[in-house]
Specification:
alpha/beta; single chain; five-stranded parallel beta sheet; 49% helix; Rossmann fold; 130 residues
Amino acid sequence: MAQGANILVVDDEQVILDLFSRVLGTKGHKITTAKDGYQAIEEVKKGKFDIIFLDIIMPGMNGLETYKKIKEVDPNAHTIMMTGYSVEELIEQAMLEGVQDCLRKPFDIVEIMKTVEKVLEIKKLEERKT
């Protein structure tokens, strides 16, 4: 990949933010982190992201609510939900709203990298169509 992706990671657990920053940052991607949905929305208002990793269960505003607000700001946001809980109903709802995928905690680093590559490929194909 010639240039790294601009990636937003949203999770209330600092260890998750650190993991994504370390793993994806070493691959040349620019990582921005947010600790909650409100901060995530502000980051999306400030700039465009190639991929958004969004935790489903967070205090204040859950991932699905956050995703809906992000879509108001950036209707083309490529979003991957993350969860460590059994929240099938929320996952299903998120997929119906347009979320690309859902990663389950604990994460497999290879799975994170494959997900990034898959979403970037989808994004590239979409850009060719326009």
